[in-house]
Design goal:
The protein is of the alpha+beta class. 24% of the residues lie in helices and 32% in strands. Strands 5-4-3-2-1-8-7-6 form an 8-stranded antiparallel sheet, with helices on one face. The longest helix has 18 residues.
Amino acid sequence: MSRYGRRFACTCALLLAVLSWPADANEPFPFGSELMLDAAPMHGTKRMPMLEIDDNGATSIDLWCTSVQAQATVGGDGTITIVPGVTQPAQCTPERESVDQDLIAALTQATNWRRNGDIVELTGATTLRFRLMTN
């Protein structure tokens, strides 16, 4: 291989390494943005759970069937605490009520967050993966 061929191959390898390098692990929390739960849609509805946390901690949680206002504390060190308020009454099937209660429990047990591009993961007893809505 010629000297220029090797140089081109090295440049391509370096470019590929840079492009495949993981996103900055210190990406800021996307305050004020809608985050949609990364899950398969529930049969019989187009509604998907959403989470929005403002920089003052005011939090809106749209579940499979109902909505909840909450308060969140998001640390720059990757910690998170979510304290839900009273669930707004809704006409739900027992199955959806149960799934909503499970999701609220998982959110309240979340202790850490991390962001990688448009993905925000909340970890605790369960890992919840959310996608940043960019439309």
